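This section describes the prediction task in plain terms. A model, or a person checking by hand, is given the sequence of a single protein chain and must write out its three-dimensional structure as a string of tokens. No templates, partner chains or ligands are provided. The sample shown here is typical of the held-out split.
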Amino acid sequence: MSTLQTRFLEPKDIPALMALEHSKWEPDQAASDTVILERIQTYPDLCIGTFCSRTGKALASLFMRPVSPAMFTAPTKWKIAADVHAENIAHGHRRSLFGISLSSNHAQAVKEIFKFFYPHALKAGWRDVYLGSPIPGFGKARKKKS
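The expected answer:
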């Protein structure tokens, strides 16, 4: 049994995160190492991961960014909502977050991310998290159905 370690992500985590991305997402859905680095550098306190402390393997990751809740009152494409430099970032708002990507192959690792982040979120004044990850395999499933 592995021991789980949950913490804020750092650039040194990118190789392990890339392995998780490619195990979870289709090639056109997986974030690149450049995108992951940009997320970590732009919002270091909103990027969290759970790792196996024995192997260093990334078991779950969550990337978030601030948003204005008004962003969700009109149709919004995921790529726009996920863009850390998009205009709809909540300037001056410290209440709502958009979950750009929640990736995991390990249910307990996801629970550990939320357990870790809740106290940080409350202390920072975050009150809402809108999770918006694309659905893995959805594109493939739609093509097979047609």
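For orientation: The chain has one domain: 4-145.
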